[in-house]
TrEMBL record:
Name this protein carries in UniProt: BTB domain-containing protein
Annotated source species: Anaeramoeba ignava
Domain of life: Eukaryota
Alphabetized Pfam families for the sequence: BTB (PF00651)
Annotated ranges, domain BTB: 22-89
Transmembrane segments: none
Length: 127
């Protein structure tokens, strides 16, 4: 599992080199976020159902997610790839509440460590 997470983090960090691996777009007003479907299938029940169900919808893009601020979405994006939170990110109560909703919405698989636990730990360490 550690090797897999290292590979996922490499894909995130080498964004331009791995553009062909990113076959799904989450489009927000200000930016497009590209993800490999395989990573989303691994991390999210929502996307697993979307990509593996037998439907006529072969879309490779979703839009909005306005319930998450840019900062919260960036935390979500980094966690999807690395199962970590960037050290330089300041965690606030508002971000915790937003991501709590996001965790439920995306039906995230709560790996060890899970995103909510990491947020709480980082928040407590900051204060």
């Amino acid at each position: 599992m550690k090797k897999l997470e290292e590979t996922m983090k490499r894909i995130y960090l080498n964004e331009n080199e791995n553009e062909n691996e990113k076959d799904f777009i989450i489009e927000r007003k200000e930016k497009q976020y590209k993800f490999p479907k395989l990573i989303l299938i691994m991390r999210s029940e929502l996307y697993r159902g979307m990509f593996l169900s037998v439907t006529n919808d072969k879309s490779n893009k979703v839009t909005d997610y306005s319930e998450l601020s840019n900062k919260s979405f960036q935390i979500f994006e980094y966690w999807i790839y690395s199962n970590q939170i960037k050290n330089e990110i300041q965690i606030t109560k508002e971000i915790i509440e937003e991501l709590k909703i996001g965790i439920d919405y995306f039906q995230l698989n709560q790996t060890n460590p899970n995103l909510f636990d990491l947020l709480i730990k980082k928040f407590n360490n900051q204060n």
